[in-house]
Amino acid sequence: MAASDLALTPHPAGYDEDLRLALEDLQLDRWLSAKALLANTRTWALRTSRSQVLAAGAAKGDAIAAWCAEDPGDANALMMRARVLTHRVLAAHRSTTARHTLLPRVSAARAACEDAARRWPADPVPWVCMLALARLDVDHKHWHSVHHWANPPEAMLPRGPWPLLWQVDRRDWPNREAYHRMLQCLQARGNGAVDFTRWVASQAKPGSVLLNLPLYAYVEDYRLRTANGQVASTLGFWTNEQVRYYVELARDGWFAYVTDRNSCSLMDLNYLAYTLTACGLPGAPEVFTAIGPLATPAPWQHVSESRWWQDDFVRARNYAMKQGRNR
Which of 156, 163, 213, 262 has the greatest CB tally within 10 Å of its CB? Predict the structure, then answer.
């Protein structure tokens, strides 16, 4: 079946069937599958991505609390508690009705991160969670932690939670989520996000997943400019030579090196597919083929002019496939 004929079946677990099963159990408040999954996860990168998805699925239930009560010394249980509490804090921050209880939740989440980091010092995930919490510290006059406003490694970069990023780097460089959390923090402060991603891309090696980071910054920049009436035309934004340079860099410096596309971040693939089509650059059909039916809401819902981001995805996919056949 051609990629253009595939019906969409979005799922947070993507092609990871073991993660899908563990996630389903967590949503039923059963934690044994998650415990087994994490015990058999052999890389930091996979541990980071799997635990993020599991936490989102477990955040509305009590499975992780039950796991911690059953085995309070389990490093994976403590890490997942930090993950879930961090997820809940960020969700509360997005909710106008829950912000009045934010400060005690932040303190509880940070304490859980510290507990998990002490239990397994080599684990990068608790530090990734602390980076995520730094996103809430946006006023340098009333900062939460001095570590959130540290001087950058280079003058062109903004102050930020650099010590937390370096803690992750010492344990797992380059950790994809850590750099995305750093980007989100700078975006929340409205300062230096694009410069940060360009700097990261300049440091990244061929094949590095971090070459996708500028795409996220440009999509958010486009969304904000469009919302504020600062974009004269979509074409004008996406045909900018600097923007096109970084989209081509992600395509040729990362995607061209991928050997197992089922192991890719689906969001990275969707951002690359969107930016390639928006820029009118070749290579989108191969990326849509790698995505298959597993589209992700972002970036499509961020830039969609309609209520149904899935329609925008399908239109972009069909157009890309048609253009690919005509080349």
Answer: 213
